[in-house]
Write a structure and sequence with these properties.
Order of helices and strands: EEHEHEHHEEHH
Protein name: Surfactin synthase thioesterase subunit
Structural class: alpha/beta
Pfam families: Thioesterase (PF00975)
Number of helices: 6
Distance between the termini: 9 Å
CATH superfamily: Alpha/Beta hydrolase fold, catalytic domain
Family: Belongs to the thioesterase family.
InterPro entries: AB_hydrolase_fold, TEII, Thioesterase
Number of strands: 6
CATH topology: Rossmann fold
Strand content: 5-15%
Helix content: 25-40%
Oligomer: single chain
Strand order of the largest sheet: 2-1-3-4-5-6
Length: 237
């Protein structure tokens, strides 16, 4: 039996490498495919994309050859929103849908962001970014690192802050699994449950103690649950 492909989309400012340390802990029948966004990692030489729907089109074009055979998505924060919109694109193009979709650290599409920060000056913007956690402290003190990092994360925040959700709350014929941190100030423990409005299938929820980057704080538990979810999918094949 073929492996299940796990296509992983990172958070704002992140690259595909944030998932690389999952590889040794995922079960042998799971093929990890970290998806790189333009302007970072192995795509560093490419132009950043600050329009959300153009970004989705870019990711769709880059992953459409990976979706033969059984596959699942995992996205964290901005990655969850990208996954959702890529699924809408797959549905519109009558492409094979994933066996499941794991959405992590993000309110559902119709819940507006409380603050828009992408247009702040560098100092204010960095201060807000550090409020999310997950960003190395040396960014504050290393001008060279900041000069690389700031345009990437500012572009990502512009994309998600100007994102317009679908008016019809289009539903996917795909099981959803939703991860969230109980101390995440950017995700509502009540509103996150409304991801269930976007699927005609099941929608399961798993809470982790931790903030916005609970996938780092509770890495072992998160990867263990990903294994469990995909084991359940394999049992249905």
């Amino acid at each position: 039996m073929s492996k299940i492909k796990l296509l992983c989309l990172p958070y704002a400012g992140g690259s595909a490498r944030v998932f690389l340390d999952w590889k040794n802990d995922l079960h042998a029948d799971i093929e990890l495919i970290p998806v790189e966004l333009p302007g970072r990692g192995k795509r560093f030489g490419e132009a950043l994309i600050s329009d959300f729907h153009q970004l989705v089109e870019d990711i769709y074009q880059n992953i459409k050859n990976e979706i033969s055979g059984p596959y699942c998505f995992f996205g964290h924060s901005m990655g969850s929103l990208i996954v959702f919109e890529v699924m809408r694109k797959l549905k519109a193009e009558k492409q094979p849908m994933p066996m499941c979709c794991i959405l992590s650290g993000k309110n559902p599409p119709h819940v507006p962001l409380r603050n828009h920060i992408h247009a702040l000056d560098d100092e204010e913007f960095l201060a807000k970014i550090f409020g999310y956690g997950g960003t190395p402290a040396e960014m504050l003190h290393n001008q060279e690192l900041a000069s690389i990092f700031l345009p990437i994360i500012r572009s990502d925040f512009q994309a998600i802050e100007l994102y317009e959700p679908p008016a019809d709350r289009e539903q996917m014929d795909c099981p959803f699994v939703v991860f969230y941190g109980t101390e995440d100030p950017y995700v509502s423990t009540d509103l996150v449950k409304e991801w269930s409005l976007y699927t005609t299938s099941s929608c399961e929820f798993y809470a982790y103690s931790g903030g916005h980057f609970f996938i780092q704080e509770k890495r072992e538990q998160v990867v263990e649950q990903v294994n469990s979810v995909l084991d359940g999918i394999r049992a249905t094949l």
